[in-house]
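Before a colleague's protein record goes any further, I have to sign it off. Thanks in advance; the entry in question is below:
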Amino acid sequence: MAPVDPDLSNSNFKPLAVHYAQTTLIGILIAIISATISKAHRTLPPSQHTRSQDGVHKSRSMLFAGLAAISAAILSYLALAARYDSYITWAQQVDVAVPNTLWDGWYAQGENGMRLQLGRWWSDVDFTKQVDEAVVDSSAALWWTQQQLMGTLVWSIYVGIEGQRRNMSSIVIAAFVLLARLSGLSVAQNLFNIAIIFTAVPLPQSSKKDPLWTPHPLIYLVSGGAALLMAGSIPYTRTGQSAIAIYRMVYYAAPLMLALMPSVVPKRLGMQHSNFHTLRTSQTKIFYVLGGLSLFFHLKQGLISILDNTPTAHKQRHNYVWNMHKDVEVTLFSQTHVAIGRVLEMLNSDPVVGVIAWDVLLSALTACVWAFDRSTNLDGILKCSIFPWHSSASEKEAPQINGREVSEAPNDTIEVKPRRRPGRPKKNTPAANASAIDENANLRRSTRHRRTTSQMTEQTDPDYVPSAAAKAQVDGNMHEDDHNGEDLVGDSESAALGWGLFVLGGLGLQQAGVLGSECCA
């Protein structure tokens, strides 16, 4: 049997091909999304193409495009760092020369030390499995992983609802979800925000389903709740291969299913609403139920992470001068501080977990900026997150009589003119001046030609009555022009509330509040 050429087993083609294939797929998805945004910009009506509106759209789109670029740069760097760290660990285990080291790298071996053994590394190490095991291996890593999963599930529902409302095709909606899985949730979230900005009016595309038709909320609750329960069950199965299988299912399949639900659900399993008010009311239930589940799993996993990373209550204080090692009791505050620090240090300690952790932080920041930019209603955020029974003052109807609002108190003062005495009034008196003005006014004649009766009786055009579809589209996008950004205090409060929900309840609760309020406004 002929010997096998060692260069064939050490070929770098396969790992590089996988890397460039992923990069190419991300580029294709971004191209599809960019084409949709460009089409939406070209088809805007003249009312949205004014000079002031174009400037506002440009500044807002540049803001979110910059956030998307920053997110892509950070996540790409961490992804490459994770691959490099895996290669270095493997090279040290199998005693392979690492490039650019002092004694056994490029400086010592010349050109031979620069060759990377990517083929051997790829065949010996299952990098995909290694990444999946790292994100569910510890309670601290799983705390970050669950936040990303739950935030992605809620965001996918939002993408499906808003995509149907704006007549986006199923391919475009799937492109957003796949981009979130391949590049990062924060990147796809910023690009979808740009698409929302340029689709204030739905795209000119014939939709097979009525704009007032939606899948039954129970379908969202059952499917979304099942996905959240699967994500919450990962800590109990992380010792075996079932945890990785559940993670991959929730990571890839569940978001795509939730986003495409308005397109794939049959009409008989949906609801036909009479107006957009009832439609949005039914969708509010979806977000606050999923937000409540996310809050429960976030607090549970956070408590487990703190308990697992809490140091012991006693430690030894070493004193090598007097050779005395006393036991010192650690306070509860110090223990909690150390435990929280160990959970948060996953941002930089492990690049594999760092990709997920930084994606969670950038996605939370994007949601806060979106709440500030869109002037998201505070009452709506609370109603879709943790206070479903909360009602704003604007929802309270004013007292009505026969279907009309009661006007303000009428003016009871009646103007009483003084009685005019008989005879000619005296000079330099108000009555005399008034009578003189009246006489002069009566003597004046208008030089205008009076309009004839035939010109006055022109036939008026009938009133315009919009169709049901046009009225539904206009009603569904009435809130698009209300976000002018003039109330900076209110906008800042919306962003601060969004960040507070993220700190206290995790990314899933924040996305449910901010995006639910935006979707159901």
